[in-house]
Amino acid sequence: MNSRGPVADSGRLGFGRAFRLLRPQEFAAVFSARRTSRGTRFVLHYKENGLPHPRLGLVIPKKLARTAVLRNAIKRQAREAFRLNRPGLPAFDLVLRLVQPVTLGEKSDWRVEIGELFGRFVTAGHKKPVADGREGNSA
Fold first, then answer.
1. What is the spatial distance between Cα 69 and Cα 60, in angstroms, rounded to a whole number?
2. Which structural domains are found in the chain, ordered by start?
3. Model pTM greater than 0.85?
């Protein structure tokens, strides 16, 4: 157990365990909230989490991304987009789910789409925690 907090675990913009959805119940809670942002290949599900930071979960089915190399590449790109957008993200649990088949040849396309989904979420006007602990608008 680390008492230094989630940011200290993996650096200022790391992706430590505190920033991940790990248990099936956490994923189920996000899916049951039924709040989404859609792209062509991906859907971003989200739900407020009551924590001081956002968390990310990934659902990349073998049926839609056939090889481990492809699934891992998608996960790397998603984690990087989350990591880079994290300072602007409100305290939500986010699940990025692949819904259309993809190939490595389309990497630049789905990489852009993942970045746009996170960017759209940041600018959508969701509540963002303010420094004193109260919630305010992200504008």
1. 12
2. 21-125 (3.30.230.10)
3. no
